[in-house]
Input
Amino acid sequence: MARILLAEDDEIMRITIKDRLEKNKWHVDAVPNGTEAVELLRKGNYHLVISDIRIPGFDGWQLLKFIRQSSPYTDIIMMTAYGSVDDAIESLKKGAADYILKPFNTDDLIIRVSRILEMQTIKARCTSLEENCREIHADLIGDSKEIARIHSLISQVAPTDSTVLILGESGTGKELVASSIHQQSKRANKPFVRLNCAAIPEGLMESELFGHEKGAFTGAHARKLGKFEMADGGTMLLDEIGELPMSLQAKLLRVLQESMYERVGGTGTISIDVRILCSTSKNLEQAVENGGFRQDLFYRLNVIPMRLPPLRERRDDIPVLTRHFLHEFSVKRGIAMEISQEAMQCLIDYSYPGNVRELKNIIERASVLAPEPVIKPTDLPADLLEANGRKVTEDSFSLSDAVAKAEKQLLVKALSHTNGKRAEAAELLGISRKNLWEKMKQYEISM
Output
């Protein structure tokens, strides 16, 4: 449901507009002055603000400036009975989405509001698509010497067709490196196909890689193309290659050596032109010694090894990565989020067993649960603070900790009073159900 904030000092007009907007199933908060509008904007998110230019407290211009600075993804419509072309141009220059002169037909206002909300939906979809594309073709982020070395190596190997074995712990960005190699290669306009060898059951792996003919096995009702066939002319990433079953390693070796294979249940030989990239968090040399990985396949894959350092070995990149993820989630939430120096230092001091993926998850959690636009140490996961030796003690004089403790107690009390009915508890507390859910998640309240 769209959330709209209406700031209008004329009581009759405020009630009239509010009622008309609510008929369209929009949530509307109405205030008589700019000061109250700013207070509500600081407490919650709004898709749209409709404000008179001349209202008590913060006037419309000041309110517009505040919104552009604190919530750049919130749109605003300016209203005035003293309108002129100059006022219209000035409001649009300062960032207003639209401008309407009093007196106006409320149907006209509804059309303008609907158009703005529809545009916000379209922008959100575009942002989502762009983010998904960036996730697929994103580049490694960082200014450290280690990342500079990786970028240099990518530039060297990308133009060739050599097999690259990308090594590194889980969450270090092995798929990003593979994607960068593909994008900088002569095959960039061809398919880039990925297969996680650890995610496919052993019984289905051969069919996934090489495809199958109709009737090859029970359930094979039609011919299916394998990943190699889909990647013909392009690049194939075999993620977590160390988990590939021994029974398929010999067939993969043949593909690497001869560039041909047969579908499951097929008799014809299929020739392909695919560049192979592999990645793993497993020690393949140890796996060879233990008999879990073919030695000849290892040598064939290990043409150009590329090791990605864990995040704890490139701590200089943590601030850059943090700001990148914070911007990403700020765009998604529609709030300009920041991080305090103390919280940043906590992030820098942490060891990150989950590497960059773990850092991203930490920033996403903090951006959702932080009660203010500035992330503080207390907004970070407790296990991170404890790992850094920063656990808050019971005799702490931190005001934010005391407020959080009181808030949790009040949430539990409200939920107990309503027998766990969240909608009633949210109404009792004077907050939205979403806000209640976020706070329950923050304080780990499960009732």
Remarks:
- Confidence is low (pLDDT under 50) at residues 392-397.
- Residues 145-309 form a domain with the Rossmann fold fold (CATH 3.40.50.300).
